[in-house]
C-alpha cells in the first residue's frame, strides 16, 4: 500500500561569530588543545555571569527577516535544565516562549517542483561541551570532557511538519545552508559538525489521516545522508506497519556504513527539561530602529536572486541555480556585470559556472571583475577565440592586468578576415599534399588534421569553425 510521510526538520547551526554566546572566549578551531578556549562563564563556575553576544543576536534577527519571520518586541532567555557532564552549569541558556524569529518560510525547489516549507521558530542557544570516551593504557575506560565548545552560539531552526518526502528534506537543508551563508550568519559545514540536522519522521495511510507515531533521526553528516536516512526510515516504518506491528517513538541514529537507522534512546519529552526564565539575564528589547538597520544590511536572498536571473536576465533555471548556489560565484557574476552593462549575460554565466568555478574548486581566488568582464566581452564578440580566452583567464587568476591591451600587444586577436583565412588554408594544403589525397579517397579525418595544422600555423588565433569551412571548400574545388 501507499504510505504518506510527514517530516519535520530541526537544524542546529553554529553562528559565524568571533566569540562565544555569553562570554568573550574565542570560537575553538580544529587542532585546539582541549579546554584551552574556556573561562569561568563557559565552565559554569559559581559567580560567573553571562553577557549576551550582540552579533549573534543580530545574525538570528537577520535570518528571521530573510525567511519572513516575525521578531518579538521583547524576548527573554530561559534555562533548559538537564543533568549531564557536557553541561557544566546543569542547564543550557536557550529560548522557549519568545524565540527571536517565528512563523517564516523557505522556498524549496526539487525535481518535482517548488514548495514553501514553513518555519515554526528560530532561536538562540549555547552549545555543550564534548565528551570523549577512551580506554587508557591500563585498560580502564575513562570519559574526558572538552569544554572548548561549551557556550558557542547556536541557532536552532524548526520547521512545521510540512515536508512530504526525503528529497524535499534534503533540498530544504541545502537551501537553509545557502541562505545562512549568503547572509553571512553561518558557514554551516555539515562535515565539520557546524550544522546538525535532525528529522522527525512518521507515516500515515492517507494525506488526511492523523499523524502516525514519529521517530527522530540524528547523526546524518551530509546532505546525501539526510535524504537516504529519511527514505530508509519511511520504508522501515512502512515495513513495521504492514507487518501488523507499531512504530515506537524513539531517537534513532543513522549509520553511514550499513545505511540503516538504529535505536539510540527512548524519546524524552520536552517537559522533562523544566524550563524557567534565566534570572541572570534581563529581558532583551528589540527596537524598530535596531531591527531596520539589520534588515537594511541583508543581501538579496537566494530564491529571489534565482527568480531575477531567470525572469530578468533570461538565464536558464539550471544556470541560475548553479550561480546562486555558490555565493562567491554570484558575487563575481554581479561584480563583472556592474563594470560592463552591455556584457552578454549568458556568456558571462557560462564563464563563471564553468572556468571560474572549476578554478575556485581547485583553490583559486576570484579574478579581477573588470578584467574578467573585458575577457568575457572579447570572447563573446569573437575578438579572441575560446582557447585564447582560457589562457588569458588562467593568467588573470594570478593577478589583474589590462586584458584589452594584452590582446592588442600580443596580437592575440582572432583571425576572422576571409582573405587571411584562405591564405592560411592554402599554405597548409600545399604543405600536406597527402591529406588532399586522403580526402579525395574518402578519409574524412583528413579535414580535422588540416584544421588542426591551420590552427597551429595561426598560433591558435584562427576560428576553427571558419577554417574548417574554408579548407573544405578548397578541398572540394
Ligand atoms: Zn568562556
Write a structural description:
39% of the residues lie in helices and 20% in strands. It has 477 residues and is of the alpha+beta class. The chain has three domains: 4-285, no CATH class; 300-409; 418-476, Arc Repressor Mutant, subunit A (Orthogonal Bundle). The strands form four sheets. It has an eight-stranded mixed beta sheet. Strands 4-3-14 form a three-stranded antiparallel beta sheet, with no helix packed on it. A two-stranded antiparallel sheet has the order 2-15. Helix 3 links the parallel strand 11 (215-220) and strand 12 (250-255). Helix 2 (166-183) packs antiparallel against helix 3, helix 9 (369-380) packs antiparallel against helix 10 and helix 13 (433-440) runs antiparallel to helix 14. It is elongated. It starts with a strand and ends with a helix. The model has no long low-confidence stretch (mean pLDDT 92). The structure holds zinc ion.
Bound molecules: zinc ion
With helices defined by DSSP (H or I, 4 residues minimum), what is the helix count?
15
Annotation, overall tally of beta strands? 15
Separation, N- and C-terminal Cα atoms: 71 Å
Q: What are the secondary-structure elements, in order, as H or E? A: EHEEEEEEEEHEEHEEEEHHHHHHHHHHHH
- Helical/strand content category: alpha+beta
Amino acid at each position: 500500500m501507499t504510505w504518506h510521510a510527514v517530516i519535520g526538520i530541526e537544524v542546529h547551526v553554529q553562528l559565524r561569530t568571533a566569540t562565544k554566546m555569553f562570554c568573550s572566549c574565542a570560537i575553538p578551531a580544529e587542532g585546539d588543545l582541549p579546554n584551552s578556549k574556556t573561562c569561568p562563564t563557559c565552565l559554569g563556575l559559581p559567580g560567573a555571569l553571562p553577557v549576551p553576544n550582540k552579533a549573534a543576536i543580530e545574525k538570528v534577527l537577520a535570518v528571521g527577516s530573510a525567511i519572513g519571520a516575525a521578531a518579538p518586541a521583547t524576548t527573554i532567555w530561559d534555562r533548559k535544565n538537564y543533568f549531564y557532564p557536557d553541561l557544566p552549569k546543569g542547564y543550557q541558556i536557550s529560548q522557549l516562549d519568545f524565540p527571536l524569529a517565528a512563523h517564516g518560510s523557505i522556498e524549496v525547489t526539487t525535481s518535482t517542483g517548488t514548495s514553501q516549507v514553513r518555519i515554526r521558530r528560530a532561536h538562540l542557544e549555547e552549545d555543550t561541551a564534548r565528551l570523549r570516551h577512551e580506554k587508557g593504557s591500563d585498560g580502564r575506560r575513562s570519559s574526558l570532557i572538552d569544554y572548548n565548545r561549551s557556550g558557542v552560539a547556536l541557532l536552532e531552526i524548526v520547521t512545521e511538519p510540512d515536508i512530504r518526502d526525503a528529497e524535499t528534506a534534503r533540498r530544504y537543508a541545502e537551501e537553509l545552508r545557502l541562505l545562512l551563508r549568503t547572509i553571512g550568519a553561518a558557514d554551516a559545514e555539515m562535515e565539520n559538525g557546524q550544522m546538525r540536522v535532525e528529522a522527525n519522521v512518521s507515516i500515515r495511510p492517507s494525506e488526511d489521516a492523523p499523524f502516525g507515531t514519529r521517530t527522530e533521526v540524528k547523526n546524518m553528516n551530509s546532505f546525501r545522508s539526510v535524504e537516504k536516512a529519511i527514505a530508509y526510515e519511511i520504508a522501515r516504518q512502512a515495513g513495521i506497519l504492514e507487518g501488523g506491528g507499531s512504530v515506537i517513538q524513539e531517537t534513532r541514529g543513522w549509520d553511514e556504513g550499513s545505511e540503516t537507522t538504529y535505536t539510540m534512546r527512548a524519546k524524552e519529552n520536552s517537559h522533562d527539561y523544566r524550563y524557567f526564565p534565566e534570572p541572570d539575564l534581563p529581558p532583551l528589547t528589540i527596537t524598530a530602529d535596531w531591527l531596520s538597520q539589520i534588515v537594511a544590511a541583508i543581501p538579496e536572498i537566494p530564491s529571489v536572486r534565482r527568480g531575477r536571473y531567470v525572469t530578468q536576465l533570461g538565464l536558464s533555471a539550471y544556470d541560475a541555480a548553479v550561480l546562486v548556489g555558490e555565493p562567491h560565484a554570484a558575487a563575481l557574476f554581479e561584480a563583472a556585470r556592474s563594470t560592463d552593462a552591455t556584457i552578454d549575460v549568458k556568456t558571462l554565466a557560462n564563464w563563471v559556472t564553468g572556468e571560474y568555478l572549476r578554478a575556485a574548486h581547485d583553490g583559486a581566488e576570484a579574478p579581477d571583475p573588470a578584467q574578467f568582464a573585458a575577457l568575457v566581452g572579447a570572447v563573446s564578440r569573437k575578438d579572441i577565440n575560446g582557447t585564447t580566452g582560457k589562457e588569458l583567464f588562467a593568467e588573470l587568476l594570478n593577478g589583474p592586468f589590462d586584458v584589452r591591451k594584452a590582446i592588442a600587444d600580443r596580437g592575440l586577436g582572432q583571425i576572422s578576415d576571409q582573405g587571411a583565412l584562405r591564405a592560411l588554408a592554402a599554405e597548409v594544403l600545399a604543405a600536406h599534399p597527402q591529406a588532399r589525397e586522403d580526402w579525395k579517397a574518402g578519409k574524412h579525418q583528413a579535414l580535422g588534421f588540416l584544421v588542426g595544422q591551420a590552427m597551429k600555423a595561426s598560433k591558435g588565433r584562427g576560428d576553427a569553425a571558419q577554417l574548417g569551412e574554408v579548407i573544405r571548400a578548397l578541398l572540394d574545388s
